[in-house]
Design goal:
Blueprint (H helix, E strand, L loop, with lengths): L15 E3 L5 E3 L21
Antiparallel strand pairs: 1-2
């Protein structure tokens, strides 16, 4: 997956990820709701 930069006045690109409650969740499916996206590197990895 290529890195992308999003400015504060732009919408984030849509993506879909596995859900913690089975199935999948996509950013577009949360439209109209407040969403916080946090990225965390795997434990014991640089960065």
């Amino acid at each position: 997956m290529a890195a992308q930069t999003v400015s504060t006045d732009e919408h984030a690109p849509d993506f879909t990820l596995p859900s913690t409650q089975h199935g999948e969740v996509s950013l577009s499916g949360l439209r109209g709701r407040k969403v916080i996206i946090a990225f965390y590197p795997r434990d014991d990895t640089p960065g």
